[in-house]
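Exam revision sheet. Question 4 asks you to relate a sequence to its structure. Input first:
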Amino acid sequence: MNFIRWIIERWRAEGGYRDVLSVAVPLILSTATWSLQNFIDRVFLSWWSQEAVAASLPAGMLNFSLVSFFMGTAGYVSTFVAQYFGSEQKKMIGPVLWQGLYIAVAGGIALLPFIPLADMIFDFFGHSEEVRQAEVVYFRILCLGAFPLVASSAMSGFFSGLGRTGVVLASNLAATAENIITDYILIFGTPLTPAMGIEGAAIATAISPVVSCLVYGVVMFRGESAREFNTRRGWKFNPSLFRRLIRFGLPNGIQFFLEVMGFTLFVLFVGRLGTVKLAATNIAFNISSIAFMPMIGLGITVSVLVGQYLGMNRADRAEYSVYSGLHITMAYMGFVSLLYIVFPELFIAFYAARSHSETFPHVASLVKVLLRFVAIYNLFDAMNIIFAGAIKGAGDTRFVMIALFVMSICCLVVPTYVAIVVLGMDIYAAWTVATLFVASMGILFCIRFVGGAWKKMRVIEEPRAAIPSSMPESIAGKVEV
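Answer key, structure tokens:
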């Protein structure tokens, strides 16, 4: 009874389960749609060929690691919006959104030079010729879609920071519907259109964020949103605000880049072990996204709530909401991990349904083992998602960046390289390294959060003090603003 009473109290409290879930549910469903897109994309490609599904993960992750630098920087708009909203400085919200969109323009331009370099990049990693050719095609097309992907990250940050996560859900549902339909048509063809295989999958993926941007734009640049948050008139480049977004957002972008790049290099090194092991790793990571991608939505929620509560100078409620988010994430991750161990066939069956590869049974048996590694590191990943999101919501992005840089190199990339390339060890050694890396990061961010330095951090300027109209003019010059 005491436990039930505690749950009820935690549900009703400010910053409790109800407050967290009211913001998080649309974001959980939104990030789940990302997972669904990737999951279905990989399933379709596994039906097309083993080489296609093997190539899609390293090429997609390499592209995403490059784009993630700009996405993490532009997406930090959400923290600015949350703190401006919490401190009632609503007219600053539109201008900071536009600074994020200018970063998206830079990202779109920056990815273009990598298109002619694709052959050289994938030659370096020594994958089979069929896989390498597919990687080059997939990577080049995704590079063309960098601008809308980064722009949608900034626009999503606008609505997430306000707590209007239903718009984020609507946008992602529209993008997911487009992706699934277009994916199937372009990969397998129709009586009127040719089958394009992995090239079609890349085109469908590149179109998806364009749909997201259209949905966001319709809502944020018209009506009440435009008037209340200055989204139309705040389009001018603001050097001071841009520098502040870069100051706090750039470490977030670097952290995002390092995290994705670390796992990208991990996958590329595993690719040296052969197509079967690369395909199994691809499928295992894809299945693992069912666990962690929805919880990314909870991580964003925690970051937003921390930003809003700190904007109100309510660090106690910010901390309470973080632990509420942690409890929910741990419960979900634990449940999915149990399914990975007890019923792995539930997830593998989708890939096996129309697979014509003679080696797929070997891939499937290997995936079952790899899912046990995923089940182990999921609970640590919950700590990683929630505690990193919390301290980033306060502005502690520099610590997260430095931690990811050091840990990615020392605990993931170098050990994986040594294990596979130098010592000639097998895939299980590589996955042991990955599991220890995730566990280390979860523990490190937990320690940083408990230390409490984040409670005194802010990313926005202090609001100007209001001067009563009845105040004598001679005193006005002495009031601090």
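Marking note for examiners. Confidence is low (pLDDT under 50) at residues 465-481.
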